[in-house]
Design brief:
The protein is an alpha+beta fold. It folds into two domains: 2-103, no CATH class; 114-251, Nucleic acid-binding proteins (OB fold (Dihydrolipoamide Acetyltransferase, E2P), Beta Barrel). It has helices spanning 2-33, 41-65, 70-78, 114-117, 129-136, 185-192, 196-205, 208-225; strands at 87-94, 97-103, 142-161, 164-173, 178-183, 230-237, 245-251. The strands form two sheets. The protein has a five-stranded mixed β-barrel. Strands 1-2 form a two-stranded antiparallel ribbon. A hairpin with a 2-residue loop joins strand 3 and strand 4. Residues 21-32, 65-69, 80-103 and 111-122 have low confidence and may be disordered.
Length: 259
């Protein structure tokens, strides 16, 4: 009888042991090898990526909207991966990302014409002959001035001396003071339309019509100078033995006059 009881006990213990051995690996395998992510982790990763994309958009929008900012310009210069040109630019940070924007180039200096600088209504500083002579006493070597007046007479007619055009005139300002001056030889070349070498060649070999045209230009110059209100740019020298030089002549009505 006791042997039967012991045999049944051994059978029960063996069955319990077998069930425990078969069940334990299944539970252990599930717990140790299967990893379930916490709830909402994918949403967290996605939100981080979206935030990074939004930050990139904000940065590049600021770059495109404020090209003149020195900070942004320095960033663009220091980033060697960016390629740019003056004007409309294509900026490449990687082969798959492209940004198109407009950047300003270096400042361009605007050059104004003389008509923009000196209008007809602008006040031009002029001196009388007496004021100019007083100013030259304080000047170094010579005094440059502008005198409003007329040529009261031609002292020396147009001639050639030492391969240069020479012409002396007497200026008279609006108060009647006079000053004898020479006209700059380079200015006479412009008015006459030829150099002294060309004039000598024309005198020897030129045809009659060309000579008549040259005489007409000289006569017109003398006629236009006398008894007309003009603006004269002068260089008056501190050395009293050197004749003042007329460097430019303009009509009072010309808006582009300047010294």
């Amino acid at each position: 009888m006791s042997n039967d009881v012991d045999r049944e006990a051994d059978i029960v213990m063996a069955s319990n042991y077998r069930s425990n051995v078969l069940k334990k690996p299944m539970v252990t395998f599930a717990k140790e090898n299967t990893v379930y992510p916490p709830a909402g982790i994918f949403n967290t990763f996605r939100s981080n990526e979206d935030r990074k994309t939004e930050e990139d958009k904000v940065f590049w929008n600021n770059v495109l909207e404020m090209p003149d900012s020195p900070v942004l310009q320095s960033q663009a210069v220091s980033n060697k991966s960016l390629t740019s040109q003056v004007g409309t630019k294509r900026i490449k940070q990687s082969p798959s990302i492209e940004y198109i924007g407009t950047f300003n180039g270096p400042p361009v200096r605007k050059i104004q014409s003389t008509q923009q600088v000196f209008s007809q209504a602008a006040t031009l500083k002029t001196e009388t002959i007496d004021e100019a002579m007083r100013s030259v006493q304080q000047a170094f070597f010579y005094h440059e001035t502008c005198i409003k007046g007329k040529v009261s007479q031609i002292v020396t007619n147009i001639s050639i001396i030492e391969k240069k055009w020479v012409m002396k005139v007497e200026l008279s300002d609006f108060i009647g003071k006079t000053l004898v001056c020479e006209i700059d030889p380079n200015l006479l070349v412009k008015y006459i339309g030829m150099t002294t070498e060309e004039a000598k060649k024309l005198k020897k070999e030129g045809n009659q019509k060309a000579k008549e045209d040259a005489n007409q230009r000289m006569n017109k110059l003398k006629k236009d100078l006398v008894n007309k209100q003009l603006l004269f740019t002068l260089e008056i020298y501190a050395d009293s033995g050197q004749c003042p030089m007329i460097k430019n002549i303009k009509k009072i009505s010309e808006p582009d006059f300047y010294i």
